[in-house]
Amino acid sequence: MTIYCTVTNDLVYDQRMQRICSSLATAGHQVVLIGRKMKQSIPLTAQPFHQKRLGCFFQKGKLFYAEYNIRLFIFLLFKKMDCICAIDLDTILPCLFISRLKRIKRVYDAHELFCEMKEIVTRPAIQRFWKMIERYSVPKFRYGYTVNEPIAAEFEKMYGVQYAVIRNVPVLMPAEPVTATEKFILYQGAVNEGRCFETLIPAMQWVPCRLIICGDGNFMAQAITLVQQYQLEEKVIFRGQLSPAALRQITQQAYIGINLVESTGKSNYLSLANKFFDYIHAGVPQLTMDYPAYASINRTYEVALLITDISAENIARQLNNLLRNEVVYSTLRQNCVAAREIYNWQQEEKLLLNLYKQIEHR
């Protein structure tokens, strides 16, 4: 099939869509991934699928989403395709309308419970707007998939759709020798609201190593202010967004990974973040939340310290425990090596390709 996939982000850093589109392209489909071109966008990297970025006058907020969706609809209107896949709610309407106009198959890729993210839940008017779109659109997408069982169960409960579970996990690659020059703590991913930076950064006052933050997002300015407020400029380092290859390299060198998220919003509570598996594949023990999806995996393969208390004092206490307790640390690290053999893209890819095979022949 010719498959068009749509996102609102810059394509360079989207490892999840790179994996998905590469797998579909390698299986023989013609794949086009459409994203957003920003002022600071760097050149696209070569991929086994086609890529297209749409430029917008507006860069954020309501006007951006309105402009991008209109531009996306117009772009798709003149393209020939057999299937269209909306990635998350912010591109679902153009995909729905195009699929009806062209009478083609449509798929919903739900990376999260969009309407239950903290930045949506805490803004009632905005949540009502997105919820209206969700209620209108999602029941019309018969085919879909999401990242874990709890989120799939929520979609079935809300809209009666039965979506497949395809985890967002890295490609299994041979372990490489690591030559780390220091013990450091790593946070990788979006620097967004609800990621506990308000307590993680102050916690670094009592932790005897550096925290390196790789990513960007809507909480970046506040995070920088917190570092200045606590005079941690030498201890908390912002590296910005890195290419997938550079991010993988720094993750392998880290001593501890951070994956903290507030429970505000059901999406956070039911989440299963990319970074959780990125740390596992790098053999890096992590500090993460005692939420259902993480706890379920940790019961089988104990790869993390799970916490519910996200106070600065407790975060510091748990990080220092990992830094000082070599027995616990070694156990978690060995479990990561075992878990990566189970949770990897080579396994999840089979589920993805099987799903699209079913869609193609229906």
Overview of this protein structure:
By secondary structure, the chain is an alpha/beta fold. 44% of the residues lie in helices and 17% in strands. The strands form 2 sheets. A 7-stranded parallel beta sheet has the order 3-2-1-4-5-6-7, sandwiched between helices. Helix 1 packs across helix 15 (345-360) and helix 7 packs across helix 13 (312-324). The longest helix is centred in the N-terminal third of the chain and has 17 residues, at 61-77. The radius of gyration is 20 Å and the shape is globular. The chain starts with a strand and ends with a helix.
Outline the secondary-structure elements:
Blueprint: E1 2-6, H1 15-26, E2 30-37, E3 50-55, H2 61-77, E4 83-87, H3 92-102, E5 105-110, H4 118-121, H5 124-137, E6 143-146, H6 149-159, E7 164-165, E8 184-188, H7 197-203, E9 210-214, H8 220-229, E10 236-238, H9 244-253, E11 256-259, H10 266-269, H11 274-281, E12 286-289, H12 292-300, E13 304-307, H13 312-324, H14 326-339, H15 345-360
Parallel strand pairs: 1-2, 1-4, 2-3, 4-5, 5-6, 6-7, 8-9, 8-11, 9-10, 11-12, 12-13
Concise account of the structure shown:
The chain is an alpha/beta fold. The protein has 15 helices and 13 strands.
